[in-house]
Design a protein that fits this description.
328 residues; alpha/beta; ornithine cyclodeaminase, domain 1; 2 domains; 11 helices
């Protein structure tokens, strides 16, 4: 079996290839051809953490994998990522374990790649101003990925701690070679933006619907079991697209309060979820209907995305001879 650490995974995972591979995988999921049970988890109450289990199988790639991911919000105060993960990959024909790899980088990049695919399918092609709400790992990954699918000329970063926003803006400015600014508030970042990426662990909404101008596209990837990052109006005003209706509408820890709570409160119905990404890929459902329509991709993170990314990493590792081989 192969062991792959975080640095090796980061060097092996090509984001553009991942976005391209996610498209048919999401279509496979929407057709019901992929095996993906709703995620479940065990709660570590003393540390306010949750260990989630996410298995999946994709026949088209012969990708059989399971991710164990710990969501520990208090890690932010310790200076370590709030999400810690490993992914196990198995031979689809025999079930023999093939690899164990770091899953934290995979989680960050497959989430951002999913938003990149949704942005390609739903945002206006001329989108140039990008707003990032959040300053963590996902915020950085989204700032890196969205310019790969849209001609971004300006990026704005906003977070609860402006010093972190300033630090991330400085880092990204040097990396991306385009202006990256630290906004004074979430509202300031969103004002006039063409694409808004919300990547927080906030318990209270950080994106309000009254800030959204016609034509904006929103990617929301934050997860908080006790709260949400979008208010009712943001969801109500938008054409909503998800990875999987089954997943997003499922009870916690699988679903999204951003969608479940407006349904619970009678603001929207389940029918307000207009499409799955896979249905947009196949053309079964249309995406954006006009230049003024507000679109929202609400991601909960689905296991088939991890399986696709892990398969790409493992194939690249075997091709390049990367990783540590061990006998179980």
């Amino acid at each position: 079996m192969l062991i792959l650490n975080r640095q090796e995974v980061a060097s092996l995972l090509d984001v553009d290839r991942l976005m391209d591979a996610l498209a048919p995988a999401m279509a496979e999921l929407s057709r019901g051809a992929a095996s993906q049970p709703p995620r479940t988890g065990a709660v570590a109450q003393e540390s306010d953490g949750t260990l989630l289990v996410m298995p999946a199988y994709l026949g088209s790639l012969k990708a059989l994998a399971a991710k164990l991911v710990g969501v520990f919000p208090r890690n932010a105060g310790l200076g370590i990522p709030t999400h810690q993960a490993i992914i196990a990959v198995f031979d689809a024909g025999t079930g023999v374990p093939q690899a164990i790899m770091d899953g934290s980088h995979v989680t960050a990049m497959r989430t951002a790649a999913g938003s990149g695919l949704a942005t390609r399918l739903l945002s206006r092609p001329d989108s140039k101003v990008l707003a990032i709400l959040g300053t963590g790992v996902q915020a950085k990954a989204h700032a890196q990925v969205i310019p790969r699918v849209r001609p971004v000329t300006e990026t704005r970063i906003a977070g609860r701690d402006r010093s972190k926003a300033l630090a991330l803006a400085e880092e990204l400015s040097a990396e991306l070679g385009t202006p990256v600014l630290a906004a004074a508030s979430y509202e300031e970042a969103v004002e006039g933006a063409d694409v808004v990426c919300v990547a927080t662990h906030s318990q209270e909404p950080v994106l309000l619907g009254r800030w959204l101008r016609p034509g904006v596209h929103v990617n929301s990837v934050g997860l908080n079991f006790q709260g949400r990052e979008l208010d009712d109006e943001a969801v109500l005003k938008a054409r909503v697209v998800v990875e999987s209706r089954e997943s997003v509408l499922a009870p916690s820890p699988a679903g999204a309060n951003d969608i479940a709570w407006p349904i619970r409160d009678g603001v929207i119905t389940e029918g307000h979820v207009a499409a799955e990404v896979g249905e947009l890929v196949t053309g079964a459902v249309t995406g954006r209907s006009s230049a003024r329509e507000i679109t929202l991709y609400k991601s909960v993170g689905v296991a088939v995305q991890d399986a696709v990314a892990a398969r790409l990493v493992l194939d690249a590792a075997l091709e390049r001879g990367v990783g540590l081989k061990v006998d179980l």
